[in-house]
Amino acid sequence: MTMITIVEAVNRALAYELEADPSVVLLGEDIGVNGGVFRATDGLQAQFGKTRVIDTPLAEIAISGVSVGLATQGLKPVSEIQFMGFIYATMEQLISHAARMRNRTRGRLTCPMVVRAPYGAGIHAPEHHSESTEALFVHIPGLKVVIPSTPRRTYGLLLAAIRDPDPVIFLEPERIYRLIKQDVEEDGVALPLEKCFIEREGSDLTLISWGASMHEARQAVASLEAKGVGVDLIDVATLSPLDSETILASVEKTGRCLIVHEAPKTGGMGAEIAARICEKALLSLKAPVKRVTGYDIIVPLYKLEKHYLPSVKVILQAAQEILEFA
Amino acid sequence: MQPIAHFEIYSHQFLNSAGDLTLPLPPPFHSPRDLLKPYQHMLRIRAFDSKAVALQRTGQIGTFPSSEGEEASMAGIAFAMQAEDVFLPSYREHGVLFARGVSMEEVLLYWGGDERGSNYANARQDFPIAVPIATQVLHAVGVATAFKLKGEKKVAVTTCGDGGSSRADFNEGLNFAGVWQIPLVVVVVNNQWAISVPRSSQSKAATFAQKAIAAGMEGIQVDGNDLIAMTHVCRQAVDKARTGAGPTLIEAVTYRMAPHTTADDASRYRGQEEVNSAKALDPILRLKTFLMREKVWSLDEEEAFKQKLQEEVNEAAKAYQAMSPQPIESIFDYLYAKLPRALEEQKAQAVERSEL
Questions:
Q1: Among all residues of chain B, which has the CA nearest to that of A60?
Q2: Are B233 and B226 in contact (CB under 8 A)?
Q3: Do domains A2-184 and A197-323 have the same CATH topology?
Q4: How far apart are CA A217 and CA A289, in angstroms?
Q5: What is the ipTM of this complex?
Q6: Is the pTM above the cut of 0.95?
Q7: Which residues of B are catalytic?
C-alpha cells in the first residue's frame, strides 16, 4: 500500500488496466511524452509504448469520434480531454454516436469507452479551465457520469469505468487532485458504478455532494459532529445512473437534506436529487431540502472565484437553517 | 522566394457520357462482361429507390433520401471492397449496403422507424447510416486505426457529401488519417447539392479532392457517374490502404437527381433545366449504352431483369410490412448492456402507460 493523491490514483488505475487488458488504449493531447498537463498519464507512454498511449493532433471532436470507431472494433479507448472547458466540441460525437450506438444497432455495435476530463474551479487557472458542467452529460441517456472524490474511489471507479461495456464520462476534481492522500491498494479491484458512498453516518442530517465539493462537505461534517450533530455524508460518485435508493433511505432516516455542488444551481444535479426526494420521501422531511451550489453565472476569473465556490461557512450556515427549522 | 509545395489533382474517366470507352478497360475488369454484375446492381438500387419513394408517398415509411443518379458511385465503392472491410455510410448509401449483404427489408425497416433496420443480419461489422453530417469520417478513422493497431489487413471505407466536407469532423478526420497513415478511404460523394446549397456555395476550392493535400494524403477526383472509373479508382485506393501505403480521399463527381429527401421540394432552389441536363449524364444510361454496344446486354435482358427487380422490391416491401413492431420494453433494452436499476421503474411505467 502506498499513500497517493487523486491524480496519482488516475495514473495507477490506467497503468493497471493497460497492463491487464491489451485492448485498452489511451489517447489525447500531450498525454504521451509530456504525461498530460496534470501528469495523470505520466510515464505511461514510456512503459506501454506509443501504440497504447497515443498523442493525438489537437482536435477534440476527432478524439471523441475516433474513440467511437476504436471502441466498435473491440478496443477500449480511454481519452483525455485536457480541461472540461474544451469538452463541448465533443458533444455531438458523444451524444449522437457514443451514447446511441448500442441502442440504434440493437446491440450489434457498442462503445465501451471512457472520456476523462479534469473539471471545476479553484486552481487559479485561466478562463475556460474552471467548468463544472456535469449536468449536461447526466441529461444524456446512454452515457454514465462518474466523479470521484478520494484517491481510493478514483482508482476503483476508473477501473470500473474502463471495464464498463458502455461509454463513461469520468470527471476528475482538479482542485483536489493533490489535496488528499490515501493508502490505495493497487489490487485492480473496481468499485461499483451504481452506488453512492456513505462516508459518515448520523441521524440528524443528510449531506449530499460529489467531486471537489466533498472536500468542503467533509470539513462541514467534522464541525457539525463536534457539536453533536449526526450527519449521513453521501458522496454520489456516480451521477448517472443515480443511486436514488441510498439517498432516499438516508433522507427517510434523517428527515433533513442539504445538497452541495459547485456547478450552477439551475438544472444542476442538486435539482434532480431534490425532485426525487420530493417525489418519494416528501413526508419524511422535517425541513425543506436546501441546496448550496455555484451561482447561475459564468465562473469568475480567479481573483473572485472563491466567492463562486460553496465554502465550509456557507455549508454550515445552510445546515444550521435546516436543523433550526425543525 | 521560391515555391515550396506543389500539387496536382487528376480526374479519372474511362466511360464518357455518350457511353464510349475512351481508355482501355482497367482492372478489376477484364472484359465488358465483368461489368454486368455492377450494372445490375445499379439497376437494383434504382428500383429500390423508386419503390421506397412510393412507399413514403403512401405513408408506409417515413422520410426517405433517394439516391437516384448516384448509383455508379455506390456500386463502385461496393465492388472495390472486400467482405471483411468496414463500410461507414452517410444516409444516402443504401446502395453500397445492399452489395454488402444488407437487405432491402432492413433499409425499409430503418426508414420505417424501427431500430432493427440497423441490426444487419449480414455485414455485421458495417456501420449504421450516419444522419449527423460527416461524423462517420471520424468513426472510420477510429476503425482504420484499430486495424492498424491490431495488425489486421482490413480497410475502413466511408462516404460523406460535398456539404460534409465543410465540417470539422471531415477535416479533423483527414488530418488524423494523414498523420497516422491508416488504412482508410474517404469518398466525398459530390452530388452538387447539400439540401438547397449548391456546390459553388460550399467551397471555393477547385476540387474537393484537393482537401486531402493539406492533410498530407492522396486526393483523386473521379467521374462518379462512370462505374468503370469509380470501381477502378476505389479498388486502387482500397488495395493501397490494405498494403499499408496510407489513406486516400476520392471525390466522386455526380448529381443528386432526386430532392434531398421526400420531405424536400427541390423546385424551390433549382430549375428543371439543370436536372434535365444532369439526366444526360445518367450513370445507368451510359453503361447500358456501352454494354449493348458491346453486345453483352440486350433490351430483352434489361426488361426481364427489371421485371425480376420489381418482384424483388415488392417482396422486400411485403416482408417489411409483415414485421410486427418491437415490444414496448425494447425502448429501454438496448440503452446499456444491462439496464441500470435506476431505469427499472421507468421501464415498468412505460409498459403500464401503454395499457392506459
A1: B172
A2: no
A3: yes
A4: 16
A5: 0.95
A6: yes
A7: 256, 260, 269
